[in-house]
Specification:
44 residues; mainly alpha
Length: 44
């Protein structure tokens, strides 16, 4: 495993798993992608 490979894995973890699927307590235990979708729907 080289440094570029490690970066790709970290970027995937942050972009996919951490930001889209992980439940965030500050958002009412809702994943950020779902929170954003709800917020956008409420604005229309």
């Amino acid at each position: 495993v080289d440094l570029d490979d490690a970066r790709r894995h970290i970027e995937f973890f942050i972009a996919d798993l951490y930001n889209h699927r992980r439940l965030h307590s500050s958002l009412g235990y809702v994943p950020p992608a779902e929170f954003a979708a709800r917020y956008t729907a409420a604005q229309t």
